C-alpha cells in the first residue's frame, strides 16, 4: 500500500502479505512471548478460520482503537509493528480497509516508544490464504540444504545425499521413478514442449508473479469474506514455511513417515506439537505453486465430460464451456491448485471492487475468457502468450528463439526465480536448468510427472 496511495487497489488489498499470509487487513504484529505475557491470542475456529485478539494502542497519549493483533514468529521481543496506509476514508470502495495508524506517526520518526497495549476482549476475523506455519515434517516438499553439504556432499550419495533421485523398488530391482509407468506416454517430440523451472534460492515471496497472473488471466478479486472461506481464486500462490521448533530427528525409533500425535498436536485440545509451531527465530522459505501441468495428470482421468485434457505442448488444458462443475478434478489434484467459480464475479454486485462496472471491465484481457459461475479454472501456462509467440514467428518465417516463450509470472519475476521455455530446444535455458543437480519435482513419488520443476534452496549459513 505504500503510504496509502495504493489503498484503493483491490488487487493489492487481496494480495496476501508474504510472511503473515493475511489479506484485506493491517494489524499489530507482536512476538509470541509478548503475546503470551499480554494474554493475546490467535485461534482457529471450528471452520479453520483465524481469529485474533483486538487491542487499543496508545503512543504518547494518542490512542488508536480496535486494532487486530497478529502473532508473528521471529519478531523481536519487546517490539510491535503496524502498517501505515490503511483505513483511508472517502477514497474508494476498498481504501477504508483496516485501521488508520497515522495518528501514531509524528511525520518524521517511524520508530516510536512508550507504547501501551490494552485488550478489548473482542476477537477479529482474519482472512488468511495459508494457516499452517511449517512443513509439518514433510521436508521433501520445499527442499533445502546447508551450504557445507551442498559443496562437500554428493547430491546422490547413498547415505547422505541431499537430493537423491527417487527410486522405486520392483521385482527387477531399483529403478528411477521416471522410468516406471503404468500409463502410455504422450508424444512430446513434435513442436515445443513447455517446462517451467522455479528456483527456491532466489524466490523472495514478493508476489509480483501472483499479481501478474491475476492481471493477465482475468482472475477475479473475491473479497475478505470469500478468502476467509478459502475461496480465493489465485491461479498461483506462494507458500511460506517456517522452520519448526524441534526437528523430527530427536524422536528416535519412529518409523519414517509415521504420523505421531506428539509431533503434530492440535489447536482444538490445546496441545502443542513440535512440528506445527515455528522456531523462536525461524528460517523462512518461499515456494510458488501453480498447476504443475502433469504429463500424467490425476485430474484428467476423473473428469466425466473431458473438460480437462492434455495438450501436445505439455499443458493441462481446460475447456470452460464443457465443464459442468463436478469438482472431481479439484478432489483428485494433489497440489490443490484448481479453483471453483462459486459466482459470476464480474457481474455480481457483491464483488464490485472498482472492476465490475463497464469502465472497470476495460482492464480485462480480451485474449483470455472470463469464466462464469459453476466451472473450474486453473493455471494455463499462459497458453494465449505462447500461441501468440508461435504464430508471430510463423508469420515471419523463422524459428522461435530461446527467451521468447514467456508466461505472465516468468516475465514479472524480478529475481529470475521463474524460468519458462521449450524443452525440445536443446539450447534453451530451461533445459540447462533441468540438468542441474538441485532439480526436483513436487510430490514426485505419486508419479504425476509434472512439467514444473523446482531447485533445492541452499541455506548459506553455518549450522550450529
TrEMBL record:
Domain 4Fe-4S ferredoxin-type, first and last residues per copy: 194-224, 282-313, 314-343
Does the keyword Iron belong to this entry? yes
Keyword tRNA-binding appears in the UniProt entry = no
Keywords for this protein: 4Fe-4S, Iron, Iron-sulfur, Metal-binding
- UniProt-recorded name of the protein: Fe-S-cluster-containing dehydrogenase component
Q: Which organism is it from?
A: Chryseobacterium camelliae
Amino acid at each position: 500500500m505504500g503510504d496509502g496511495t495504493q489503498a484503493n487497489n483491490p488487487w493489492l488489498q487481496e494480495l496476501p502479505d508474504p510472511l503473515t499470509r493475511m489479506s484485506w487487513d493491517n494489524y499489530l504484529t507482536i512476538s509470541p512471548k509478548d503475546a503470551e505475557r499480554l494474554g493475546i491470542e490467535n485461534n482457529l475456529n471450528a471452520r479453520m478460520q483465524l481469529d485474533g485478539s483486538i487491542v487499543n494502542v496508545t503512543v504518547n497519549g494518542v490512542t488508536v482503537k480496535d486494532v487486530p493483533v497478529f502473532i508473528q514468529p521471529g519478531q523481536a521481543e519487546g517490539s510491535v509493528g503496524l502498517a501505515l496506509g490503511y483505513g483511508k476514508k472517502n477514497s474508494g470502495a476498498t481504501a477504508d480497509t483496516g485501521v488508520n495508524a497515522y495518528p501514531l506517526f509524528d511525520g518524521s520518526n517511524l520508530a516510536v516508544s512508550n507504547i501501551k497495549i490494552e485488550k478489548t476482549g473482542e476477537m477479529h476475523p482474519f482472512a488468511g490464504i495459508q494457516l499452517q506455519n511449517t512443513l509439518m515434517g514433510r521436508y521433501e516438499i520445499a527442499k533445502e540444504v546447508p551450504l557445507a553439504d551442498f559443496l562437500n556432499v554428493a547430491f546422490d550419495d547413498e547415505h547422505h545425499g541431499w537430493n537423491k533421485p527417487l527410486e522405486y523398488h520392483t521385482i527387477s530391482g531399483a529403478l528411477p521413478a521416471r522410468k516406471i509407468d503404468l500409463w502410455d506416454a504422450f508424444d512430446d517430440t513434435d513442436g515445443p514442449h513447455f517446462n517451467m523451472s522455479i528456483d527456491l534460492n532466489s524466490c523472495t515471496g514478493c508476489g509480483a508473479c501472483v499479481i501478474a497472473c491475476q492481471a493477465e488471466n482475468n482472475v477475479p478479486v473475491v473479497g475478505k469474506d470469500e478468502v476467509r472461506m478459502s475461496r480465493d481464486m489465485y491461479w498461483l500462490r506462494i507458500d511460506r514455511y517456517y522452520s519448526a521448533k524441534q526437528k523430527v530427528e530427536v524422536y528416535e525409533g519412529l518409523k519414517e513417515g509415521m504420523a505421531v500425535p506428539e509431533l503434530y498436536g492440535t489447536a482444538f485440545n490445546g496441545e502443542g506439537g513440535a512440528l506445527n509451531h515455528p522456531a523462536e527465530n525461524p528460517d523462512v522459505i518461499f515456494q510458488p505453486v501453480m498447476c504443475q501441468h502433469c504429463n500424467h495428470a490425476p485430474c484428467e482421468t476423473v473428469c466425466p465430460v473431458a473438460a480437462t485434457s492434455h495438450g501436445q505442448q505439455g499443458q493441462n488444458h481446460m475447456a470452460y464451456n464443457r465443464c459442468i462443475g463436478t469438482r472431481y478434478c479439484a478432489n483428485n489434484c494433489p497440489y490443490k491448485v484448481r479453483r471453483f467459480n462459486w459466482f459470476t464475479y464480474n457481474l455480481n454486485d457483491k464483488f464490485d471492487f472498482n472492476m465490475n462496472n463497464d469502465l472497470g471491465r476495460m482492464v480485462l484481457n480480451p485474449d483470455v475468457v472470463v469464466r462464469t459461475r459453476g466451472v473450474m479454472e486453473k493455471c494455463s501456462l499462459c497458453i494465449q502468450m505462447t500461441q501468440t509467440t508461435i504464430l508471430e514467428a510463423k508469420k515471419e518465417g523463422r524459428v522461435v528463439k530461446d527467451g521468447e516463450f514467456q508466461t505472465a509470472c516468468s516475465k514479472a519475476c524480478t529475481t529470475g526465480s521463474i524460468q519458462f521455455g521449450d524443452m525440445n530446444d536443446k539450447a534453451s535455458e530451461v533445459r540447462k536448468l533441468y540438468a542441474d543437480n538441485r532439480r526436483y519435482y513436487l510430490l514426485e513419488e505419486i508419479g504425476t510427472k509434472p512439467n514444473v520443476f523446482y531447485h533445492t534452496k541452499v541455506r548459506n549459513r553455518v549450522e550450529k
